[in-house]
Amino acid sequence: MADDFTDVQTKDQRAEDLKAIGWVSYLLHLIVAVGAVIPGAQPGAALLLIALVIDLVKKSDAEGTWQASHFSWRLRTVIWAGVLYVLTAPLWILILPGWIAWGLISLWFLYRIVRGMVAMNKGLALEM
To answer: Which residue from 14, 27, 44, 80 has the highest number of Cβ atoms inside 10 Å of its Cβ?
Structure first.
């Protein structure tokens, strides 16, 4: 009977426990986003992949908490940025249009990450 203990955590406790993971993920995304906006400062896709794996693995732990919106927010941001980069890649044939398109996508990516960080710092969920 001693083994019948159950780990009971409230939604608020789970959300607070996930804050550290959320900050690690946001900071990795931020490094990538800043690197995308500043020419020649690319830290590489490895950091983005690490952040993506963290988000995918821990997303289920956040279900039912305000943190769930942050995991979805980061995943959607990466997916949409990737799709937009692929769709605008042909513009690089003319160089300037490609540079402008990717610059705008990179700024949008940076905006989304900063907006998410601000909301998480306030303990707020993000609206999709």
So the answer is: 14
Tracing tokens 């500043």 back to the chain, one arrives at 38
**Cβ-contact 28, 35 below 8 angstroms:** no
pLDDT in tens, the chain (128 residues): 455 544 556 777 877 888 989 999 999 999 888 888 877 666 667 888 899 999 999 999 999 889 999 999 999 999 999 999 999 999 989 989 988 999 999 999 999 999 999 999 999 999 87
Q: Taking Cα atoms as reference points, which of 100, 54, 95 lies closest to residue 75?
A: 54
3-class DSSP string for 72-109: HHHHHHHHHHHHHHHHHHHHHHHCHHHHHHHHHHHHHH
- Most distant CA atoms of the chain, gap in Å: 72
Read off the pTM. Answer: 0.81
Give every CB contact of residue 60 below 8 A, 6+ residues apart in sequence.
none
Cα dihedral 104, 106, 108, 110 sign: negative
Structural tokens at position 96: 């300037």
